[in-house]
Amino acid sequence: MVEERGRLFRPIVPNQHSRVTYAELFFDLVFVYAVTQVSHTLLAHFTVLGAVETTMLFLAVWWVWVYTTWVTNWLNPELTPVRILLFFLMLGGLLLSTSIPHAFDTRGLWFAGAYAAMQVGRTLFWLLSTPHRTAARRNALRILVWLSASAVFWIAGGIAEGPSRLWLWGVALVIEYVSPLARFWTPGYGASAVTDWYVEGGHMAERCAGFIIIALGEAIVVNGATFAELNWTPESVGAFACAFVASIAMWWIYFHKGAEAGSELISKSSESGRLARSAYTYLHMPIVAGIILSAVADEVVLKHPLGHADPKVALTAIGGPVLFLVGTILFKHVIRGFLQLSHGIGIIAFAVLSYVSLALSPLMLSAVTTAILIVVAVWESLSLRAPVRE
Question: pTM for the complete prediction?
């Protein structure tokens, strides 16, 4: 990727990170809204089918964001053409986000059209910005072929109705999620080499950490807005406090040591593309999904803190932190080379809690899940200060 760079590519400065630009941060604002739409859609359609549909919508939102992050790792958002590209992608992202609540009924074609246009249009821009006869151009062609193939299924699904839409969009997602693992093998061009996927590691790590902040920030904003509309009883205050402290614990677990270690490792790695694909493109998905699911639980507990927890509360209150911890333990395994014992014990504790969760009130369940997250955060902080591993 560094053999010959076009005029729209970021300049490479030895031993210096490419900073995240204001244009990229501006672009991210759309995805604050997208994350809110995903969590609210799950709340409104909390059934098995609704969970499957919402998961597919989340996978699409994450994929279009992370692909844009890869491209802006190479292209320079300080240049006007690239900025204009990001502004068009913001418009597409707004259409995508506003279509999420009704993507599986009246606005399927809007969602699919916005998504396909963003994926294909951005890749085509990258292709046209890349010099001929370079590895970067061959990779852009490979990706364009794969995304164009998936776009057919997105559009077909947007036109279809009922179960057909679910299946067609499922095929589109499989195509897109398998393609990096297949290294975008394309007839006539073969598969790309790992060395073709050089990324500026510090920039990639900072961008993905920024999305974690988006998810945590969305949870805090939604919880604050919900709490403001309630009667401030001891129970609602307790639920709000648990939600806020849990967000802090999640922030601590991800950022206190992990984010910095990941940034340092990928910045020094000779296979930065492989690390970016596994640690950031794939393994950050469960981390973000866990935060979103936890935010759904927080909103439910805030509104109904008393009584016995129902399966909806139990699934979200326990499933969210478990997804988050599974994502972080795998992410940290990639960057540290060992499994974090504190995270493993936390996952086991949540598994044990699931057996008694329906006997607890939503508020008590929230308090216990928050306590487990605090223990994991403190345990990891103390263990990494020691000269030996956990």
Answer: 0.92
